[in-house]
Amino acid sequence: MGRRNWANDNPIVTPRNHFRITASALGHWAVAQLQDSLAVGLIWLIGLWIIRVPWAPLWAALAAVLQIVPHFGPILGLLGPVLASALRWKDWQHPLYVLILMR
């Protein structure tokens, strides 16, 4: 076996090629974020509908949109359904069900 020429194995990355690669990666990230948000929204919609939280489609859509915000988005998406269930039933069990749904 001869020696490998490593210079030929690594093509030169031009600015145009770098931009194309970066745009492709960002596009894939955006599609993955959209899929994640849709999955979260659907799970929330089903869960909130099962425990009969008022305005379930609104809260599910809000949770899906806020899912993109790191760390605080899921918490902010949780406040509405917890408050709605607490005001609707005036007990502690239904808000607890909503909190369990988040986990």
Q: Please, could you describe this protein's structure?
A:
The protein is mainly α and 103 residues long. The chain has a domain of 69 residues. It contains five helices and no strands. Helix 3 runs antiparallel to helix 4. It is rod-shaped and about 75 Å long.
- How is the main sheet built? none
Q: How many DSSP helices?
A: 5
* Run of helices and strands: HHHHH
- Radius of gyration over alpha carbons? 23 Å
Give me the count of strands. 0
Mean pLDDT: 90
What is the general shape?
A: rod-shaped
Q: Which runs of at least 5 residues are low in confidence (pLDDT < 50)? A: none
Q: What would you call the structural class?
A: mainly alpha
How widely separated are the two ends? Answer: 57 Å
What share of residues are in beta strands?
A: under 5%
Helical content stands at over 70%
Keywords, please?
mainly alpha; rod-shaped; 103 residues; 5 helices
